[in-house]
Every structure is written in structure tokens, then in C-alpha cells.
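I'll show a typical protein example:
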Amino acid sequence: MVARMHNRFAVQTMVMACMAQLDLDAVVYPTSNLPPVKLGSPRGPEINGRAGDGVWRFLGANGFPAITVPVGFTTVMYDRIRVVATPESDVSSEGSETQIVGPVAARLPVGMDIVARPFGEPTILKIAAAYEAATGHREPPADFGPLSGAELSAP
């Protein structure tokens, strides 16, 4: 736990120093630079000990609030399938590997992340709300239906 807290403190110190030096209240970046995969697909291989958890999880685990907002739609998707090792294949003999197939035509949402300094939730909520209001990129599912005042009020 001590090592984890030291790492967290180091990450927070570096990120907050950069944000202060650049006079930033928040940072915006794409949620992913890869097209989405089909739900339920096998996970991809680990790269440098990570399985594609992304910046959002990394920053969130280190105390930085983050939110994702819709920015539009992609036109393709990729799928990952299991490939069983055979003597003729280049796949390792450990059983199975995965392979990416596609692109397949699809209309899937794409997002951007907004992250702020620790306890900066009000800042990212204001930015996210203003962005969504200005762009209108959010599209509810066709069968979702309109929201009435009752669903929008606090419990």
C-alpha cells in the first residue's frame, strides 16, 4: 500500500504541476484511438503489462475526476476472435490467441474524456454540459423515448 500511495502522489504531483504551468482547469482527450470492438469479444493482448484500460482508468485511479461525453459516431468496428493454435499456424502453443477481424460497417458512438484536478468535479460537469448543449452530439437510442420532468428531478 505504501508503494501504491507513493506512486499516486508522484502521478498527482506531475499532472497537477503540468496543469498549473499551462494554466489548465481541465484536459480533453479522445476516449480511445481505436475503433470499438463487439461486446463480449475476447480481450486483446497485454501491451507493456496493460490490457487497454486507457487513460481514463489510470487518471481516475490516481484521484483525477473524469467524464466521457459523446462526440459523434464511427462508421466501422473491429471484432476480436479466438484463433486456436494448430501445428501449421504461427499461434503460440499455449492454446489460443486472438486476432482482429474487420472493419465491419457500423454506427457506434465515439467519446471524448474530460479530466480535472482532484475535487474538480464541478469543473468537468460544467464543461461536459456546455459541450453537449453546444454540439448536440448525444443521440438517445431510438426506443428510449423522451424524458419527462419526473425522470429529471432528484429523488
About this structure: Residues 2-75+104-139 form one domain. The CA atoms of residues 12 and 62 lie 7 Å apart.
